[in-house]
Amino acid sequence: MATNHPYKFCFGPWNISEGADPYGPTTRPPQTFDWKLEQLKKLGFDAMMFHDDDAVPDIDTKSAVQIRKEAKELKKKLDDAGLVAEMVAPRLWFSPMTIDGAYTSNDPKCRRYAIDRSRRSIDIAKILGTDILVLWLAREGTYLREAKKGRRSIVLMVEAFDQMLAHDKKIRLAIEPKPNEPMDHAYLPTIGHALAVAQLTRDPKRVGALIETAHCILAGLDPADEIAFAMSFGKLWSLHLNDQNGLKYDQDKPFGSTNLRGAFDQVRVLEQNKYGSRGEYVCFDVHPFRTTKPEHTLAHLDNSRRTFLRLVEKARSFDETAAKKLIAARDYQALDQMVIEHLLGK
Ligand code: GLO
Ligand code: MG
Fold first, then answer.
1. pTM for the model
2. In whole angstroms, what is the distance from residue 132 CA to residue 130 CA?
3. Which atom of ligand 1 is nearest to the CA of 210?
4. Residue of the CA atom closest to atom 4 of ligand 1
5. Going by CA atoms, what residue is nearest to atom 3 of ligand 1?
6. b/e map of 236-246 (b: 16 or more CB within 10 Å)?
């Protein structure tokens, strides 16, 4: 496996999940946060991702002072374990205040709640030592087109982002687009939408993106091209690698599980554009299959990292000179077979 690689890896506590789905209960017992942190370290990962309430549980019931105190305790725990926080993300989809959306709710009280909670998340991020606030805009969209005005929703989101940018001079917002689920249609479904909306904010330089493989596939787009697009703007600040079998519910399969060639193409574009050279992490937003037994509850994370590193080797050993010749001769048929045989190995 590629040992001389520049990559740093992370996952979030939610990636060690218990197997519940909308049709059935959990299939594995829950694990404590401390256990998850210990496993992260043992698996050779470098950082953890945090929702605001992964960092400070029951955040809505706590005072600002209490939140700061608990965030500082967590920071110490991470320091002691030699780990860091990659990002913090406000979880704006669980509370009764976010039923009709967060920043784009039709109720001004709910919009206020979403902005206040985002500000608290920024405070937590600062204490944990990360300048990245991830915004997966789960409920910013509609089930019903007539329920909201699309243009007004964009204005509301930009106003919310501006307030976050004003709250802290250093914070960077990494928008994680996803076209659907839980909404029928999301307002920021692709990287192009995320980067376009960045331009409307008070500080476009501090608004970038996070790409997730499955979300690109759900939008009918090629994840490798989406990565290349964001990197062309210097705006790929984080990455959720996983896999997805076509247009259905969000699957969060292990990286490479469905489309190995697509995974190779993602790794190749990351290598070509030196992802990670500005401190960016490779995160695996993957879940165990529901059928996974408790004793194998970490396999999907370890496997995703192994596959990634194997594909780094494959990207580096790909015969670029031979590929160039085939491209010059417009012999894409031979190029296609060359890629297949390279991936199949000897
Ligand atoms: C869901 C998203 C979700 C986010 C996470 C961080 O589809 O991928 O897992 O990445 O909540 O904001
Ligand atoms: Mg994700």
1. 0.97
2. 6
3. 10
4. 136
5. 136
6. bbbbbbbbbee
Hey, whose CA ends up nearest to atom 2 of ligand 1?
136
Q: What is the DSSP letter of 60?
A: G
Q: Which domains does the chain have, with CATH numbers?
A: 8-318 (3.20.20.150)
The residue to which tokens 């500000």 are assigned:
119
**Distance in Å, CA 335 to ligand 2 centroid:** 33
Beta-carbon count within 10 A of 86 CB: 26
Residue 324 CA to ligand 2 center (angstroms) comes to 35
Q: Which residues does the annotation mark as catalytic?
A: 51, 54
CA 212 to ligand 2 center in whole angstroms: 6
Token representation of residue 159? 């106003």
Question: Which listed ligand is nearest to 178 at the C-alpha?
Answer: 1
Distance between CA atoms of residues 255 and 287, nearest Å: 10
Give the binding-site residues of ligand 1, using a 6 Å CB cut-off: 89, 134, 136, 176, 178, 212, 240, 250, 285
Residue-level pLDDT, tens digit, the chain, 346 residues:
666 778 999 999 999 999 999 999 999 999 999 999 999 999 999 999 999 999 999 999 999 999 999 999 999 999 999 999 999 999 999 999 999 999 999 999 999 999 999 999 999 999 999 999 999 999 999 999 899 999 999 999 999 999 999 999 999 999 999 999 999 999 999 999 999 999 999 999 999 999 999 999 999 999 999 999 999 999 999 999 999 999 999 999 999 999 999 999 999 999 999 999 999 999 999 999 999 999 999 999 999 999 999 999 999 999 999 999 999 999 999 999 999 999 999 8
> Which residues have CB under 8 Å from 316's CB, separation 6+?
2, 271
Contact call for residues 89 and 135 (beta carbons, < 8 A): yes
Distance between CA 326 and CA 295 in Å, rounded? 47
